[in-house]
Specification:
The structure holds three protein chains of three kinds. Chain A is an all-alpha fold. Helix content of chain A is 72%, strand content 0%. The longest helix of chain A is centred in the first third of the chain and has 32 residues. The relative contact order of chain A is 0.14. Chain B has one domain: MetI-like fold, CATH 1.10.3720. Chain B is flat, with a radius of gyration of 24 Å. In chain C, helix 2 links the parallel strand 1 and strand 2. In chain C, helix 10 crosses helix 11. The chains are: A mainly alpha, B mainly alpha, C alpha+beta. The interface between B and C is medium-sized, with 28 and 32 residues.
Chain lengths: 277, 300, 446
């Protein structure tokens, strides 16, 4: 390496360590507190390591409580939501990015408009709708609404990525007589795999982490999802912070797993291959 | 090629677009119309109760409400501070992590962690960090570095509280922006970089002339989404200051939430939210239009 | 390779359909009961007559849904689910109680949404300040009319908590648990400073400078809403609204009220009350008393449990709220148990309410920290926890926050005005005059 490369490398590493450090301090604190029993007072971060550390909270969370059940509910809902959202958003984004048709401007405008509407104001109208559709107290009710709510954001995101793919490639395929469907599946989707992976990460997170709707429409404890389960560890007058943080740490694991799995798709060179053809 | 019969372009388009739109219309558009309807009434939540039609009265009430204006000011300030910082830092992080680096996955994951840490827990921790008296930030500023002589009661007044709230917003948003930029950077063809290098362009020049123009579209989209997110800030303000003291740190959504769920005035709450919608939509549309105008015929 | 992408898309579609199918293949929970029936009368419960059609005495299955905010893994939820509900169900064959726990911080939001969607459960353990509000919306059942033995039940509970259920000549619930705030102190701090724990407001004013000089806050609290400020106003002899709850002028801006609030303000400006009092109520303040940073605080019985984990050797010294011209008057907190107007099983719900306020159930709850609403159990409380004595004494005179549907707005106005004054120019008299007008307007509008 040249000296220039080496100093670039050091600067790069330093900045990354700085970024990463600032990002994870709260997580480190959460993990440390989760190892304390009966922590009803928010522990001073500097003193967290004093006193005993134990895995009791994790045992309580995982073995004694309904937590694993909520975990499973969240997982089922999140997988279904992610699959449905990414697929529907991707198709819609393709339609909007590649075609011209009456009503296109209206649709794009509606999508942007709905992004600008604060979600909380829709809570009661959506609740009434869910009631009419008989989706109250059902996990399908969660999936259906999560898909609808995340649709605008994910579609909007993907339109941007799709528009970045050169039309020349589409045209080449059309000359070969490829149908729109084939162009979608065999050209657009593979070339925008990082976009789809990003969409999957956000859709999963949007479902996994969602609290308000899950709290609102689910009453049956057997259908409860994780965020509500974690919130239930907080008492009215006192909170067992160790227990709450232990539950939160466990809840983070699948999201991190999804992130790691999907961001590996961010591999350079996919576009290159396409251009060379 | 498009001339050959518009119908060739229409049917496949509708097939792609319709399924998603059906769900979207049911779950989002229809409830939005209902919420708009509610904003035109003095709405009583009791089932079957009378909700008198009041036309634009709720909107007029908002215009005359000084706390309403302050909440929008605060929302705007939050947006103006957090959006550029998030985007800049997110882009820097993405650029740093776009290379073949050992531990790349680990770094990406760590920087993403704030995004997945719940707002509730992050707000709690930031409130602790910015605690009056001997909170860590004060301890750092007074005891460790001696930059100031007296600890600041961060959450006790408007501007210092906004600093704390914005800090949380930026911290939480960097990883989100980074993720989207990373995906966009993958789409920049290696050939462009190679060609520029062959021409003798150094790292900075390649950044300015190759990378940034290529991800311009993504930059726009991230900006628009961040602006929308900025105006929609809620939980962090709710849990850090509750909009106080004395309504000094209200933002649009904390204020409308109080009207709706504390005072049960859903008509007024809905009106506030639609005024926010109009503002955000306007800003977003302006942003998109501006970037479309200045965009040259790039790779697309 | 081309063909496999078609298969892939089909596989995704199939997986999607399967996932959705799995989710939808669940039946409704059994809350949509349509049968009404009489209860099979048990020996101990009084028979009730219903105004709806009665069927033959055959016991039919009913489920009543009960929303509460006991958190998971707590002793309260264990007592509820392992002891109380089974006992009730045994005594009432055919009735099943489905208990749904809701995180406390979001219970109100969930209730409001349920009201709007007409999806309320049968019974709710509600915060006392919500009852008049929901009653005024017409979504609660007046227990004073539903339950023939209501007067007996009402006589057995403390009057302050009972009053929280009062709305327009009827009572819409019964108290379920109660608590109040008392003056909790760190005895060592006082010993070291050479002063006594203040018994009156004047005492507090007198000793504050001594404590401030020693670098200790005399008194800590974290908010300026009714819950925090009313004890001081009432003890000073003032009030926030008049008895009929129609005006605030003459009450909140009376000289006594001004005196009560001014005491707090003066302490705040001299550094005897920490900053957090203007910061909205999120900051915890128990630990400061245990560490000696603060001399005293106003808090409820849970303060003991909070400190027990980290400070097992520390003992709080409880005493009554510092007295003023109005005596030592604190504020009542707690929960009421209510039956919803939309319930399709009102008799069974009323039975459950009756059960939960019975001495047996109340004692079981008292043993795990939920102070009983029954005055007869006052002595038994002290047997359970010695420190309950002070709370029981304080409850004798404790008052509820004004039971009016407009309370959320009044509380917010109070808090905002006081915050403004405290961080601003400190003109308490002006602030309370303005507040009086504001509350008058709120009450007139409601």
């Amino acid at each position: 390496m040249t000296p220039h490369d080496q100093s670039t490398h050091w600067v790069r590493s330093f900045l990354l360590v700085l970024f990463a450090g600032v990002s994870i301090i709260p997580l480190v604190y959460m993990v440390l507190v989760s190892l304390k029993e009966n922590a009803y007072l928010i522990p001073n971060p500097l003193k967290v390591l004093q006193g005993g550390l134990s895995l009791d909270n994790y045992a309580t969370v995982w073995l004694d409580s309904e937590f694993p059940h909520y975990f499973l509910n969240s997982l089922v809902v999140a997988v279904a939501t992610t699959a449905a959202t990414v697929w529907l958003a991707s198709m819609t984004a393709y339609g909007l990015a590649r075609f011209d048709f009456p009503g296109k401007r209206l649709i794009e405008g509606l999508i942007l408009l709905e992004l600008a509407v604060p979600a909380i104001v829709l809570l009661i109208p959506q609740f009434l709708l869910a009631k009419d559709l008989h989706l109250l107290d059902k996990r399908l009710g969660l999936v259906f609404f999560y898909v609808g709510v995340n649709f605008a954001f994910i579609t909007f995101l993907m339109i941007g990525f799709f528009r970045g793919v050169p039309r020349a490639l589409d045209d080449a395929m059309m000359v070969d007589g490829a149908s729109a469907w084939r162009r979608y599946w065999q050209l657009m989707v593979p070339l925008t795999w990082p976009a789809h992976a990003t969409a999957a990460i956000f859709a999963f997170l949007g479902s996994w982490d969602e609290y308000v709707w899950a709290l609102t429409i689910i009453n049956d404890p057997s259908k409860r999802t994780l965020p509500v389960g974690v919130a239930l560890f907080s008492g009215q007058h006192q909170v067992d912070w160790g227990l709450t943080f232990a539950a939160s740490v466990v809840a983070l694991a699948p999201v991190i797993a999804v992130f790691i799995a999907f961001q590996r798709q961010f591999v350079r060179g996919v576009m290159t291959g396409a251009l060379r053809q | 090629m498009r001339r050959r019969g518009k119908s060739r372009w229409r049917t496949p388009a509708y097939a792609f677009v319709l399924p998603g739109l059906v769900v979207f219309t049911m779950v989002m558009v229809y409830p939005t119309v209902r919420a708009l309807f509610i904003s035109l009434h003095e709405w009583n939540i009791a089932p079957g109760a009378e909700s008198p039609f009041v036309g634009l009265a709720n909107y007029v009430k908002a215009v005359k409400d000084p706390v309403f204006w302050r909440s929008f000011q605060n929302g705007g300030i939050y947006m103006l501070v957090t959006v550029p910082l998030q985007i800049a830092l997110g882009l820097v992080a993405a650029l740093l992590l776009d290379a073949k680096l050992r531990g790349r996955t680990i770094f990406r994951t760590l920087i993403y962690i704030p995004v997945i840490t719940s707002w509730v827990i992050s707000s709690l921790l930031f409130r602790y960090l910015f605690g009056a008296g001997s909170g860590p930030i004060n301890a750092f500023l007074v005891d460790v570095t001696g930059v100031i002589s007296e600890p600041i009661a961060w959450l006790g007044s408007r501007w210092t509280a906004l600093v704390a709230i914005c800090a949380l917003g930026v911290w939480k948003g960097v990883g989100w922006a980074m993720l989207i930029f990373l995906a966009a950077l993958q789409a920049v063809p290696v050939e462009l970089h190679e060609a520029a290098a062959v021409d003798g362009a150094g790292g900075w020049q390649r950044l300015r002339n190759v990378t940034l123009p290529s991800i311009r579209r993504t930059l726009t989209f991230v900006t628009v989404l961040s602006i929308i997110g900025g105006f929609n800030v809620f939980i962090s303000v709710y849990l850090m200051t509750g909009g106080g003291p004395a309504d000094q740190t209200q933002v649009p959504i904390t204020y409308l939430y109080r009207q709706a769920f504390s005072f049960l005035d859903f008509g007024y709450g809905s009106a506030i939210s639609f005024m926010l919608t109009v503002l955000v939509f306007g800003v977003a549309t302006a942003q998109l239009w501006l970037s479309n105008r200045t965009e040259s015929e790039g790779p697309a | 390779m081309r063909r496999s992408t078609t298969w892939r898309s089909l596989a995704v579609a199939a997986a999607l359909l399967l996932a959705l199918g799995a989710c939808s293949g669940e039946s409704d929970t059994g809350t949509e009961e349509t049968t009404t029936s009489t209860q099979a009368a048990t020996d101990e419960q009084p028979t009730t007559t219903t105004s709806t059609t009665t069927t033959a005495a055959a016991v039919e299955e009913q489920t009543i849904e009960f929303w509460h905010a006991f958190n998971a893994e707590s002793s309260e939820v264990q007592v509820l689910e392992d002891q109380l509900i089974p006992q009730f169900e045994a005594e009432h064959p055919g009735v099943t109680v489905k208990a749904v726990s809701v995180p406390y911080g979001d219970l109100r939001q969930k209730l409001v949404t349920a009201v709007a969607g007409d999806q309320l459960p049968d019974v709710v353990r509600a915060d006392i300040i919500w009852v008049p509000e929901f009653a005024s919306l017409g979504v609660l059942e007046p227990l004073s009319e539903l339950m023939p033995d209501f007067e007996q039940l009402a006589a057995a509970v403390y009057p302050g908590p009972l009053e929280t259920n009062h709305w327009q000549d009827a009572y819409y619930g019964l108290p379920l648990s109660t608590n109040t705030r008392v003056y909790l102190s760190n005895p060592d701090v006082y010993a070291n400073a050479g002063v006594d724990i203040p018994a009156t407001q004047d005492d507090l004013r007198a000793i504050a400078p001594t404590l401030v000089d020693a670098g200790i806050a005399a008194f800590a609290d974290n908010d300026l809403s009714g819950w925090n400020v009313l004890p001081w106003i009432w003890s000073a002899g003032g009030d926030i609204v008049d008895e009929a709850i129609t005006t605030a002028s003459g009450s909140i801006n009376s000289p006594e009220s001004i005196a009560g609030v001014s005491l707090l303000y003066d302490l705040y400006t001299m550094g005897a009350i920490p900053e957090m009092i203007v910061q909205g109520g999120m900051d915890p303040y128990e630990e400061g008393v245990a560490t000696g940073q603060y001399a005293s605080m106003m808090n409820g019985p849970w303060a003991y449990s909070i400190l027990a984990g980290d400070y097992p050797d520390f003992e709080l010294a409880p005493s009554l709220t510092p007295a003023g011209d109005g005596g030592s008057v604190s504020v009542v907190g707690g929960e009421d148990i209510v039956v919803t107007a939309s319930s399709e099983h009102k008799e069974a719900a009323a039975d459950f309410v009756r059960f939960m306020v019975s001495p047996e159930a109340q004692r079981a709850l008292a043993e795990i920290g939920q102070m009983s609403v029954l005055s007869e159990l006052g002595d038994a409380m002290v047997e359970i926890q010695p420190y309950y004595q002070t709370f029981v004494d304080q409850l004798a005179t404790a008052r509820p926050r004004p039971p009016t549907p407009a309370w959320p707005e009044i509380d917010q106005a109070l808090k905002t005005r006081l915050q403004e004054a405290f961080v601003g120019d400190g003109d308490i008299e002006q602030a309370l005059n303005d507040l009086a007008q504001e509350i008058d307007q709120i009450l007139a509008d409601s």
